[in-house]
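Hey, quick one: can you model this chain's 3D structure?
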Amino acid sequence: ENIVFVYAGNGDNRKLRKLGRKYPQRLYISPERDDFFEIMKSSCIFLNTYPISGALMIQYAALAGCIPITLKRKWDDDASGILIKEEELGETFTSVYDICKEIDRLIEDDYYHEEKKKLLENRVISYNDFKEKLYRIVEFPQSDFKGIRKFDTKKYRKAFVEHITLSQVVKILLE
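Sure thing. Here's the predicted structure for all 175 residues.
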């Protein structure tokens, strides 16, 4: 009863609206918002997007103290390497069972939740470090930044194509 789910985005939310009718005071749907970071600061868990992971949103969540949890496909590299030493946080899963178990534990065990929240501190690269590393990548193709690696994007692109609608393509082309 004390859980509220907030979806803020411009994607297809038909299934969420259906779920919202079943839980009218516990599910809120909103278009994208300029104050989303403030909402995250008041939230406990950020469930990362799927099937295309949101790297910037993981960083926003970590900065806001909102535990980012990601369900990724086994072949999906785009959901890894976003936070500094993210393996210590242990919030990326390939199993629906495991991610649900983790969410339950985060919700039910306040001590566990607070310990995980503490692990979020200093996990996002600083502005100056990012700027310096980006400069090095552009100027010198060899970089010490471990986040740069080659990806096979065939499956990633296939997942994107399978989930984009014609109306989204038209909107992108007309904007």
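One thing worth noting: The chain has a mean pLDDT of 84.
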